[in-house]
Amino acid sequence: MNEQQTRPPVKRPFVLSGGGARGYAHLGVLKAFSEQDIYPEAISATSAGSIAAAFICDGYSTDEVREIFRVHKLGLSMHWRNWRAGFLSLKKVAEVLKQTLRHQTFEELDTPLYVTATDFLTGNQRIFSEGPLIPAILAASSVPLLFPPVEINGVQYVDGGLSGNLPIEPLLAEYRDIIGVHVNPLTPYNPAEGFLANVERTLHLAIREPVLKNKLLCSYFIEPEDLGKFGMFDFKRLEAIYTSGLEYTRRRLQEQPVMLQG
Of 52, 73, 97, 117, which residue is most buried, by most CB within 10 angstroms? Predict the structure, then answer.
């Protein structure tokens, strides 16, 4: 215990996946790492992961981000309503980001951040690492059919998970010992599940292969198994999602500590 208390903080690059409401588990995962004095050296993220990453790279602690979500009721603003209305919109997300982020550009952040979105014309991955933060985050989070594409410099972008839901690519050239966090465990197929569950499963299967390939490039990989009981639209269950990520990662770090040398 004394050794842990006197050890200087360790920095490691992280890659955070998308996952809708399950993206809130990233805060629990990062909280568990911080308890071991391990913090992001840089973060590459997409979709819901990019929202969490923006706050962390802007110098917020995980507890402070949770308080922002609570005060602004950000989770409740995104819950599923019906096919006609869809989500309420990403407007609330944009407003909260504008009000609470201390910095509004990538260059001003305390920790390097890479946000990936998908070019809606070509399907190619686009990496944002400079310029305005909020448009890139909204583009990375705009799930097709639920949100309209976000236009940046004349190009239409949608959810980054479609071109790579574990976007390790921006980190490979400059960083080593990358920690991957994926919040979309593939659960056993249940034909009795509802329409939305089947749509979600179809999406996961469609984007799974690149995730498995990028997982092999991580030196340490976290995928909380219990997150399979939550859907990507379970925004009313954020605290349970957070706890699932936190407790799983605590157990994992106890069983298999991160190599801290170097």
Answer: 117
* Active-site pick, 44, 141, 142, 159: 159
Burial class (CB in 10 A: 0-12, 13-18, 19+), 51: buried
Query: Measured between alpha carbons, how far is residue 142 from residues 175, 197, 199, 203 in Å?
Result: 28, 19, 16, 14
Band (83; pLDDT cuts 50, 70, 90) = very low
**Hey, which residues does 119 pair with through a beta bridge?**
157
pTM of the entire predicted model: 0.90
* DSSP assignment string, 65-93: HHHHHHHHTTTGGG----TTT-SS-SHHH
- What mean pLDDT is reported for the chain? 89
* Of the candidates 187, 160, 224, 250, the residue with the CA atom closest to the CA atom of residue 25: 224
The angle formed by the CA atoms of residues 205, 169 and 148, to the nearest 5 degrees, is 60
159 is catalytic: yes
Neighbouring C-alpha atoms within 13 Å toward the C-beta of 141: 27
- What percent of the chain has pLDDT above 90? 73
H or E stretch at 148: none
Residue 78's pLDDT band (cuts 50, 70, 90): low
Nearest to 54, CA basis, from 67, 75, 71, 40: 40
What are the structural domains, with CATH classification, of the chain? 10-254 (3.40.1090.10)
Closest C-alpha among 43, 51, 12 to residue 167: 43
Residues 128-181: pLDDT tens digits? 999 999 999 999 999 887 788 999 999 999 999 999 999 999 999 999 999 999
